[in-house]
Design brief:
Elements: H1 3-6, H2 20-29, E1 31-35, E2 40-42, E3 50-56, E4 59-64, E5 70-76, E6 81-82, H3 84-89, E7 96-99, E8 103-109, H4 110-119, H5 122-147, H6 150-165, E9 166-169, E10 172-175, H7 181-188, H8 192-205, E11 208-211, E12 214-217, H9 220-225
Antiparallel strand pairs: 1-8, 2-7, 3-6, 3-8, 4-5, 4-7, 9-10, 10-12, 11-12
Helix pairs in contact: 6-7, 7-8
Keywords: DNA-binding, Transcription, Transcription regulation
Protein name: Crp/Fnr family transcriptional regulator
GO molecular function: DNA binding; DNA-binding transcription factor activity
Length: 228
């Protein structure tokens, strides 16, 4: 493993404060994995023995209702990690993880992860902070489902995606994720038909533009006004 790869964990918040020797020790037991676009990394209820740390690409975390409707919970990108729930509580996976594009990541086995936490308790503190943020985000998703109409939920989700995965262009901020209407519908808890109508309305108003499964926010201020 090259020096850059060995110290890659310095870019990951929960591991950034570890001494270089500890990082090298951790990366020495890490394994590199590559997943194709659309490939399932793990299913809900699978045994959870591995932590995934993303080096390149984006991963969708989602759950499916008994009738088959998908709800997307979050999208993780470079420098983020997922799969820690099962490593911490020993229970099966709580959701599906799917590669949205080609994903390159490092994996840590549960025993190696636990040894790292015992040796460096600050890892656990950072993990708890991260879990708290994710739980707060889940609370906000529930509030949105209760209090916002579909256009409001779509507008808010587009602004969130632009903030997390946006790329500035001459026409506005492009969300650098391949998004279908069904993907967006799963993120906001609505039907594809409803989201299609909302996107058409936003396009007609000039708030957004679409093309090649990418959405560009042209007038984010007006989009923000539509949330409430």
């Amino acid at each position: 493993m090259s020096t850059d790869e060995t110290l890659y964990l310095k870019q990951v918040s929960s591991f950034a404060e570890l001494p270089d020797d500890d990082l090298r020790e951790l990366m020495a037991v890490a394994k590199k994995r590559i997943f194709r676009p659309g490939e399932v990394i793990f299913h809900r209820d699978d045994p959870g023995q591995v932590l995934y740390i993303i080096k390149e690409g984006k991963v969708k975390i989602a759950i499916n209702s008994p009738d088959g409707q998908e709800i997307s919970l979050v999208i993780f990108g470079k420098g983020e990690y997922f799969g820690e729930f099962a490593l911490l509580d020993g229970l099966p996976r709580s959701a599906d993880a799917v590669a949205l594009e080609r994903v390159e990541c490092y994996t840590l086995q549960r025993d190696d992860f636990h040894r790292a936490i015992l040796k460096n308790p600050r890892i656990a503190i950072h993990m708890l902070e991260s879990l708290s943020r994710r739980l707060r985000n889940t609370d906000r998703m529930i509030e949105d489902l209760i209090f916002l109409d579909v256009p409001g939920r779509v507008a808010k989700k587009l602004l969130e995606l632009a903030e997390l995965h946006g790329v500035p262009t001459e026409n506005g901020v492009r969300i650098d994720i391949r998004l279908t209407q069904q993907d967006l519908a799963a993120m906001v808890g609505a039907s594809r038909e409803s989201v299609n109508k909302v996107l058409g309305y936003f396009s007609a108003k000039g708030y957004i533009s679409t093309g090649h499964h990418r959405i560009t926010l042209r007038r984010p201020a007006e989009l923000k006004e539509r949330i409430y």
